[in-house]
Specification:
- The chain is α+β, with helices and mostly antiparallel strands.
- It has 2 domains: about 40 residues, no CATH class; about 150 residues, Cytochrome P460 (Chalcone isomerase, 3-Layer(bba) Sandwich).
- Helix content is about 30%, strand content about 20%.
């Protein structure tokens, strides 16, 4: 290819780039690590789990934090070492729980006796240190309904664990401990709804 053809092709490429609005990273971008793609990612860097953004505006499942008692407290004997070890893996017990559900999951949560949550549903629970809704939040956990095939053994839910201010991601994915526990509620699409209360649950059809 001679010099004339190279110059002509370069000119055509410049016209195309100008028309579609593509800006190639220049040397200054590279030095500052500011190419267009990295900027898109950076906009969400402060939100470890975008799916739970704005969850304080979601529907409350319970208005007042509910204390989650340990099953070991109900035993008529001393717990076995393996039972104590298993409970240490449970983030819910001996905390006051405040539960939220996003708009996608509202109907299943509040209106279905045997719910089937749509893809995109998010159920989130805050673990607080007292029954005061404004008390310190110690931990945030959430489950996100993914598309069919994500994790069929556990209802295609992704589990998420965050710090109390929801600013630090501690774990997420197909968490075996979470999925194994929620398997108890397979008939309810793997979702615990104790926060609704017995009376409300009894009215569901």
């Amino acid at each position: 290819m001679n010099l004339v053809k190279i110059v002509a092709l370069a000119g055509i490429a410049g016209i195309v780039i100008g028309i579609v609005g593509i800006r190639l990273p220049n040397a200054q971008d590279v030095r500052r690590n500011r190419n267009p793609i990295s900027q898109v990612v950076a906009r969400d860097a402060g939100v470890p789990v975008p799916e739970i953004s704005g969850y304080h505006d979601w529907k409350h499942v319970n208005d007042k934090p509910q204390f989650i008692m340990s099953r070991l407290d109900l035993l008529c004997r001393s717990p076995f070492p393996e039972e104590i070890a298993a409970e240490k893996l449970d983030p819910h017990v001996r905390h006051y729980m405040l539960c939220y559900v996003n708009a996608i999951g509202e109907h299943a949560m509040f209106s279905e006796k045997h719910p089937r949550f749509p893809v995109g549903s998010v159920v989130l629970k805050e673990k607080r240190d007292s029954e005061n809704p404004k008390s310190q939040c110690m931990l945030v956990t959430a489950m996100i309904k993914r598309t069919s095939g994500y994790d069929p053994v556990h209802g295609d839910w992704e589990y998420v664990v965050l710090s109390g201010d929801a600013g630090t991601l501690q774990a997420r994915g197909k968490l075996e401990n979470c999925g194994g526990c929620h398997a108890q509620k397979r008939s309810n699409d793997y979702v615990f709804r104790d926060e609704l209360g017995e009376k409300k649950l009894a009215l569901l059809r």
